[in-house]
Amino acid sequence: MKGRKWFPVIAASIVATFWAAQAMAAVEVQWWHAMRGSRGEVVDTIVKAFNDSQSDYKVNAVYKGEYDEVVNAGVAAVRAGKQPHILQSFEVGTQTMMLSGAVYPVYQLMKDKGYDIDWKAYLQPVLSYYMDKDGNLMSMPFNSSTPVMYYNVDLFKKAGIDAPLSKTDPVTWDQMGEMTKKLVDSGVPGGMVTAWQSWTQVENYCAMHDLPFASKANGYEGLDTELLINNPKQVNHIARLKSWMDDNRFFYGGQKYQGPKSEFIAQNAGIYIDSISGIAKLKDAVKDFKWDVAPLPVEAWMEKPQNSIIGGASLWVFKGHSDKEYEGVAAFMNHLARPDMQILWHKETGYFPITIGAYEQLKEEGYYKEDPYQEVGIQQLTRREPTKNSRGLRLGYFVQIRNIINEELELVWNGSKTPQEALDAAVARSNKKLREFESIYKQ
Amino acid sequence: MLRKRSYFDSKRLPYLLILPQILVTVTFFYWPAVQGLAQSFMLSDPFGLHSRFVLFDNYIRLFKDPLYLRSIVITLTFSASTAALAITTGLFLATLANRILRFKNIIRTFLIWPYAVAPAISGILWLFLLHPSFGVVAIAVKKYLGVDWNPVLRGSDAMVMVILASAWKQVSYNFVFFMAGMQAIPKSLIEAAAMDGAGPFRRFWTITLPLLSPTLFFVTVMNIIFSFFETFGIIHTVTQGGPGGATNILVYKVYQDGFIGLNLGSSSAQSILLMALIITITLLQFKYVEKKVQYTG
């Protein structure tokens, strides 16, 4: 048989090819993320820049679905022993990830791999959300945003309100009351709407007014934390919004952003509170009126309002890989923090740059003169050093707690409960979840 | 004596033949179910690196939680309404379609179409109609009829919306079965009744409906199971269980607590209870309702 003769040769050459490829191939680093569409494209650009810049490592970025799907994929992978090197997880999952015992803290990784990083050169309110109580960075912040206030300049002018508002000094809630009144009086169906109510009206309200959201420094200093959002000031804020519902100065458009956003676009509301990352969407969608961005309102008694807190996600490194691979992970993390990458990320997605250097460079380039909207969020985020109340939230079962807060607020809006009753119930229900979470880790 | 030729002596062969089926069932049903059962007695972090055996704690906590009990009531209301609406509409349409003389096939095909729509898509479609901010029908209703329709804020409105979306999808399914059932009813019976002077309504009550009872029973069981489980996609796209938990049916709560909230212990306990509940309901239906069913025509 003729074929037989060639078989060993072919087999040997196949084996040789594979063996050579194996020896030459770069070390692969897997990264699972939740960025799709245009954000996903920016991720790919950043990864490509890294892969092209050297030949030792190759990062492989994979879109695994929405935040919760990515986290669940990570959970399943860890359980099966096939975890990726890097996993993007949303901010509310921070406590779960931190305590999981499955992660390699980023500060440790960078130190072990010989990167001497000056963490002070980073935007502190962004880092602080992902630090442990001693100030060690557990995960690398990736996409971070903060809520701001959008307003319809045309409707403001029609209602006789001075516009534009300051981009650095927030209006007070009393002024908000007057402005929304004027808007409604001038014939606008509603005054203000808000997206993500738990994040914007409770979590950030507490942070900016230096009120504790939860005991034990918002949970940073112990699992035996309890919610404190039924304090008189928070209750008063919710009660005020509820009273504004009577004359349409405030109305409820849903838990997420779709409802409120469409009310703002349809000019049914003159003011819309949402994440700064909504800028791009509004630029696309709004054609028939002029709008602008201002910092979130604060109380008149708060002379020096604190920084707002972030939302978004960070990159966690999983344990269980080889040293060589971790070198690649560290090199990639270092690459991410480079000013040019940060500037690209910020310009393309609207998420914050995480280093002060990148921010300064953007300022020098005059980027914020061209695009003044973007800076409102950064200035609001960095206007003070974070305190224990404004550096972030560290709660177990935080997703469920947010859900509880959303539910109870809805019961206020539809008149089933008074603000005090609802917030008391939110605290009591959340505390049960917190105790349950605590008992997992109390052996 | 005749001996059967096709007799296999082997004791093992039958087992070997059903092995593939058993393997599939064990892998995809029993194994996860047993894991769920085990998980329901544990408190653990999602990665499974810290777990504690807590016996019935997860169950006790659920029964002490007024919101869980409320979720059971919501689920029962939701399923009963969805099933009732979908069955009556399906039956009504089938009766009418059965009487049409022209374009029969075209009309039937159109009525079957919604069944091919995935629940999540059905939810989105209804959202585009009934969402207070961007729903076409909702805006019209508010503007011209002056109805204060707001499912984002009011629990009862939200309930109506998810029931409509779920029932709409299921109507086609019921329609197909009723249609087939009606075709099996001998024309002669109905014609005889008509000659005896029974009007269309009377004929329906005394002849069609009793003869349809096996179909009706089957469809009821299937509809209840559908509204317990498969409506997940509709709830997820339309209300996410809100407002204020007013449409948080059991299966959605399992997902919210387990998949999103990563509270696996409680979520597993809820799955087990949900399974127990649906088994009980189905058994009750077979025990009490099936007696009234006439299987012979």
How would you characterize the overall build of this protein?
The complex is a heterodimer of chains A (443) and B (297). Chain A is of the alpha/beta class and 443 residues long. Chain A folds into 2 domains: 23-145 and 310-382, D-Maltodextrin-Binding Protein, domain 2 (3-Layer(aba) Sandwich); 147-308 and 396-441, Periplasmic binding protein-like II (D-Maltodextrin-Binding Protein, domain 2, 3-Layer(aba) Sandwich). In chain A, 51% of the residues lie in helices and 12% in strands. Chain A has helices spanning 2-24, 37-53, 67-80, 94-99, 106-112, 124-127, 153-158, 173-185, 197-208, 215-218, 232-246, 258-265, 279-285, 323-336, 339-349, 356-365, 367-370, 372-382, 398-413, 419-441, and strands at 27-33, 57-63, 86-90, 140-145, 147-152, 190-194, 269-275, 291-294, 311-317. In chain A, the strands form 2 sheets. Chain A has a 5-stranded mixed beta sheet with strand order 2-1-3-9-4. A 4-stranded mixed beta sheet of chain A has the order 6-7-5-8. In chain A, α19 runs antiparallel to α20. Chain A is globular. Chain A starts with a helix and ends with a helix. Chain B has one domain (54-292): MetI-like (MetI-like fold, Orthogonal Bundle), CATH 1.10.3720.10. The radius of gyration of chain B is 24 Å and the shape is flat. The mean pLDDT of chain B is 89. Classes of the chains: A alpha/beta (443), B mainly alpha (297). At the A-B interface, α3, α12, α19 and α20 of A face α11 of B.
Structural shape of chain A: globular
Name the average pLDDT of chain A: 92
- Report the CATH topology name of chain B: MetI-like fold
CATH hierarchy class name of the largest domain in chain A = Alpha Beta
Main sheet specs of chain A: 5 strands, mixed
Distance between the termini of chain A: 70 Å
Q: Could you list the spans of chain B in which at least 5 consecutive residues all have pLDDT below 50?
A: none
Question: What is the H/E order of chain A?
Answer: HEHEHEHHHEEHHEHHHHEHEEHHHHHHH
- Helix proportion of chain B: over 70%
DSSP summary: helix tally of chain B: 12
The sequence of SSEs of chain B as H and E is HEEHHHHHHHHHHH
CATH architecture classification of chain B: Orthogonal Bundle
Q: Which term fits the overall shape of chain B?
A: flat
